[in-house]
């Protein structure tokens, strides 16, 4: 599993760098019927790298899927925070209606037909999300399900942290995102462990890139050769305090090559706890 939203364009003499959001890129490919995107019911994967994970390790992980024609396609990740509510990235649902999306939960493989599927009752994007401002501020959304989830070993909620910073902690990224910038998405859930860096270090490392901006609502993670990638957007950054897992972040943006040369940037859940709690009891 590698990183998500920042894309680099290289000219013959001049290097121009700009950021983009991976969920949007995957949606574009679905609607252009790219040969790299496969219906989840007939999944064909080309695994480039990464470590296989099991859903029992991340039972809060869900796949956000979009309907196109007669098929459903994985576009982003998400996290269960209540049996009726999912957290994801706003850019994953921006411009979409609830009846064109669904979530799938309780499975390690996207192709697993025993997965639990729920349609959406409504989409609630953060009111201050912006797709045009540097750094895509407030890139977070809530999805209300049309029917409750039944919790168990493969499907459960994760706690939203209150004040924890997690800087210096080793945390996990998980999802069904691409294993390289140009590769296909895997069928099996993947995970990788990385270290949280301070926002000041994150900002310094992104300083050379036009359009990149780090704010208090972000949390960053960095380790050479590791990151999230297209299809991981909206998915969980899982950090532990003692034996308790917390949803420290939701995948927002990063570098298109998924190389790990730049930090991966997430929505910091502590910054949005008050907004979330206005809809969900957490």
TrEMBL record:
User: Is Lipoprotein one of the keywords?
Assistant: no
Classify the main location: secreted
What subcellular locations does the record give? Secreted
Tell me yes or no: is Membrane among this UniProt entry's keywords: no
Q: What are the alphabetically sorted keywords of the record? A: Disulfide bond, Hydrolase, Protease, Secreted, Serine protease, Signal
- Domain Peptidase S1, by residue range, is 47-281
Record's protein name: Trypsin beta,Trypsin delta/gamma-like protein CG30031,Trypsin alpha,Chymotrypsin-like serine proteinase
Q: Which organism is it from?
A: Mytilus coruscus (Sea mussel)
């Amino acid at each position: 599993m590698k990183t998500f939203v920042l894309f680099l364009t290289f000219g013959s003499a001049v290097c121009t760098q700009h950021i983009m959001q991976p969920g949007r890129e995957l949606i574009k490919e679905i609607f252009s019927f790219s040969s790299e995107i496969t219906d989840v019911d007939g999944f064909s994967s080309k695994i480039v790298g990464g470590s296989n994970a099991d859903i029992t390790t991340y039972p809060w992980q869900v796949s956000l899927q979009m309907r196109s024609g007669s098929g459903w396609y994985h576009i982003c990740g998400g996290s269960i925070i209540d049996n009726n509510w999912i957290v994801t990235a706003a850019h994953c649902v921006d411009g979409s209606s609830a009846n064109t999306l669904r979530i799938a939960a309780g499975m390690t493989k996207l192709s697993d037909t025993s997965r639990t599927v729920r349609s959406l009752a409504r989409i609630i994007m953060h009111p201050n999300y912006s797709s045009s401002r540097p750094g895509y501020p407030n890139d977070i959304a809530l999805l209300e399900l049309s029917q409750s989830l039944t919790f168990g070993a493969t499907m459960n909620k994760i706690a939203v942290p209150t004040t924890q910073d997690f800087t210096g902690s080793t945390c996990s990224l998980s999802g069904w995102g691409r294993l390289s910038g140009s590769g296909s998405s895997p069928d099996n859930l993947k995970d990788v462990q990385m270290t949280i860096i301070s926002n000041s270090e994150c900002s310094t490392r992104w300083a050379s890139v036009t359009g990149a901006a780090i704010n208090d609502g972000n949390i960053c993670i960095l380790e050479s050769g590791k990151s999230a990638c297209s299809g991981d957007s909206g998915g969980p950054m899982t950090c532990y305090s003692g034996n308790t897992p917390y949803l420290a972040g939701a995948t927002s943006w990063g570098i298109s090559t998924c190389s790990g040369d730049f930090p991966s940037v997430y929505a910091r859940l502590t910054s949005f706890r008050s907004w979330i709690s206005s809809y969900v009891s957490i």
